User: Fold AMP-binding protein from Magnetospirillum aberrantis SpK.
Amino acid sequence: MALPNNGTTADDSRFDWNSARTLLAGLPGGGINIAHEAVDRHVAAGQGERTALVSLGRHYERHKISYGQLAAASARVCAVLQELGVQPGDTVAVLLGRSVELYQAALGIWKAGAVFCPLFGVFGPGPLRSRLELSRAKVLIATETLYSRKVLSIRGNLADLRHVLLVADEPEQSIGDHAGCDDFRARVATAQPAATVATTEQSPAFMHFTSGTTGIPKGAVHVHGAVVSHLLTGQQVFKLVPDDVYWCTADPGWITNTVYGLIVPLVNGCTALVDEAEFDPRRWYGVLKDEAVTVWYTTPTNIRMMMRYGAALARTYRENSLRLAASAGEPLGAEAATWGEKTLGVQFNDTWWQTETGAIAIANLADDGRPGSMGRPLPGVQAAVVNRNLSKVEVVNDPDAVGELALRADLPSLFSSYIGDTSRFQSCFIDGWYLTGDLVRRDADGFFWFVGRSDDMIKSAGHTIGPFEIEASMMVHPAVAEIGVVGKPDLLLREVPVAFVSLNPGFEEGDALRTELLYYGRQHLGSAIAPREIQFVEAMPKTTTGKILRRALKAKASAEPDEDAVLPTSGYPGRFDDE
Ligand code: ATP
Ligand code: MG
Assistant:
């Protein structure tokens, strides 16, 4: 598959999405379906024997699944869903860990023309109930434990939920006795494969709730036509080829797993690594090396955690098969990017996107990167720095001017609605631009630099300060493991920047270090934007996707007196239910 060669600049209006679409196989009878692009097309091309998945269980039980096996199993899942009355357009919610069944379920749901809606297993019954209600899911596929602990108590409240399919927690086991539930594995094993429903580019395919960093999460709906962006971004950002062993560490409840854990490696014909276990640096280093992972997609949080375990441990894994590592979700920062390169010997690239964009839009590439920046818009993505003016947007072309990041709304992967909130959806679009809510600047070479979310900007003494700039500078201090900077209300200056800091091993909280960090900030940032206050925390409050939860820090910063207040120290893996 060759890429249309249409350049890489922000003003790339010549990119022809229609010629890009010819790279898709398309359903034999016409139409586009993600499952067909992800598995069946490879089987039709005689590649059914190739390994689609390598799954590792908690105790390193290792299974290989071929494209042919995955195609057949998902056709049987499709049949089971149809037997349960699932119609095209219906939503099927999924509450599974990283497992082979997650892949079978997603692909089977797409084959049935239904909408895949994965949820975070770490949510409690409250957040699950609100999301299940909003999604109007008719069927839920869940692990036995997650169902018993979190859904059973709310099942009576879910008017739309008609059927529950359960997956036993241990491989090859059947489920226990649960009223109104069926055994997923048993039903799938005996079903007759069904043909893929004829979906079109506009048919809804999956729904994901945003991370809730800035408030109540929104359910963004994506269509089957997005798969062209998935195919292309896999090639543009990761240069994926079928021989790659590709590992995305995202949680199944986050869109990063659906797109870059599931769809992207499969549409590009690679082997996807599926590790069921939670974050553990030793295990992760071991998996990278032993499984000969060539491309690794993770988050800045995970990288910072690995940094905290020290460069010496990392260097023992320097002999590895990695050719590229990348991260998303928060700014990676030059510090972490360079650390990765130094210790694991591979380039660490930052990529920018959102639940709403449905695919990476801006990225550093293997041959075109600038550590610390978000990178440049990918081919076919038109990005601009704009100022919003009521119902107009004004494009700002001056290099380094700060404004809101806007994308031309013709991206095939862009969301098609927020479930149940049309007016909010409409308010994201002005004059053919999609407004992202992120503030950025673009340098003279066309690289975009993240400044902050518009809601997170700190307004102090007439300046508007982006928290990320302060964080990136302070991260260079050897004591700082993680840092979140927020504005604290101030009578005189309106707000002042306050830094919440967690420390690297070997450093002690106390007034001496606090003074040193305050001094360090003034020296490197100048007194106008340096933090005025440092608060030490054991662990940062995080969203389930591992992002620093600034609204919790803001609440903590504004609380008076705040010296003894305790943060929700979930740490990461972020176990902080955001409702
Ligand atoms: P919510 O919209 O509910 O507040 P969220 O925006 O965190 O949550 P996501 O869609 O998971 O939910 O995250 C997208 C956001 O994450 C982006 O808008 C941006 O603020 C941030 N982000 C993602 N990747 C990067 C990156 N590489 N650099 C800087 N910020 C990033
Ligand atoms: Mg958002």
Summary: Confidence is low (pLDDT under 50) at residues 1-10, 561-579.
